[in-house]
Design brief:
alpha+beta; Arc Repressor Mutant, subunit A; Nucleotidyltransferase, domain 5; five-stranded mixed sheet; two-stranded antiparallel sheet; 13 helices; elongated; WH-like_DNA-bd_sf; Transposase_5; nucleic acid binding; RNaseH_sf; Tc1-like transposase DDE domain-containing protein
């Protein structure tokens, strides 16, 4: 029979054994790439933590994409991703300035822009990095601090294209003169042979836009980019701060001393590969287009 109908012997045997049921069984579908044990480990790792899907993949050595990890977390039914803090909304005027900024910079070569920013780091944990996987079976995680302050550090960082500038540790009470000293050590040497090709980006903090700072930049022939207010999503260095925060505070254990925290920040900054910087620079065109699509609103970045 197998030879005559040109089907395998197993097909013939299954048909004979169950004539009415043959061909009616539905396929269970594609088997899951994540085992039951791996699912338990994933849920255990993200439970009430700020661990990212990529960190889970790396730590558990899973040969799956990050979306598979995220789907596994959502499928559990006991995890929800929520934030510990909200971001302020922009006014219509802010959105208008953002649209003007995009129109004026559609042709900008973002590889020639030096992106800069400051960030505060606390011994007890980050200020803004408060998203975590809430395990609904457990009490919510609280963002606590020491009663009399755990100590903090302020850093200034900048990068251009694939190149990182030297990280600077600054005072939390820095004034315009202090800021200009930072620029003397970093920005002025970088622009020495790039004054006609590159442009410097900074936000609208008072020490950045003070008369003395603007005069300092003009004296050193450093072109200052006109930056829209309330636009951290347009500055790719904000994404770098996110990378660093995940790496520095990965263990969730507070630092005992400022030196320990400083060493961890420097190590994380030095470990950023040029490929990450390149991706961030390449994302600028997409950020510009998304601002237009959202009529000046906040982007996903």
């Amino acid at each position: 029979m197998s030879k005559r109908i040109r089907r395998s012997r197993n097909v013939v045997r299954r048909y004979i054994q169950d004539v009415d049921g043959y061909g009616t069984k539905k396929s269970p579908g594609r088997p899951r790439k994540v085992s039951t044990r791996d699912e338990r480990n994933i849920l255990r790792m993200v439970s009430n933590s700020v661990t990212s899907a990529n960190d889970v993949r790396t730590e558990l050595k899973l040969d799956v994409c990050k979306n598979t990890v995220i789907n596994t977390i959502h499928r559990s039914g006991v995890m929800v991703h929520q934030k510990m803090a909200k971001t302020p909304s922009m006014t219509d005027r802010h959105k208008e300035f953002r649209l003007d900024f995009v129109r004026n910079n559609l042709a900008t070569d973002w590889n020639k822009v030096v992106f800069s920013d400051e960030k505060k780091w606390n011994l007890d944990g980050p200020d803004g990095f408060r998203s975590y996987w809430r395990d609904l079976r457990k009490d919510p995680r609280l963002f606590s601090r020491r009663n009399f302050g755990g100590g903090s550090l302020m850093i200034w960082g900048a990068f251009c294209g694939k190149k990182k500038l030297q990280l600077q540790f600054i005072s939390t009470k820095m004034n315009s003169n202090d800021y200009q000293e930072v620029l003397k050590k970093t920005i002025v040497p970088f622009f020495r042979n790039r004054r006609n090709t590159h442009i410097f980006q900074q936000d609208n903090a008072s020490i950045h836009k003070s008369r003395s700072t603007l005069d300092f930049l003009a004296k050193n022939r450093i072109k200052d980019m006109k930056w829209p207010a309330c636009s951290p999503d347009l500055n790719p260095i904000e994404n770098i701060w996110g990378f660093l925060a995940r790496r520095v505070y990965k263990t969730g254990v507070p630092f005992k001393t400022q030196q320990e925290l400083k060493d961890a920040i420097i190590a994380a900054w030095d470990a950023i590969p040029p490929s990450e910087l390149e991706k961030l620079v390449d994302s600028m065109k997409d950020r510009m287009m998304e601002v237009i699509q959202k009529n000046g609103g906040e982007t996903k970045y």
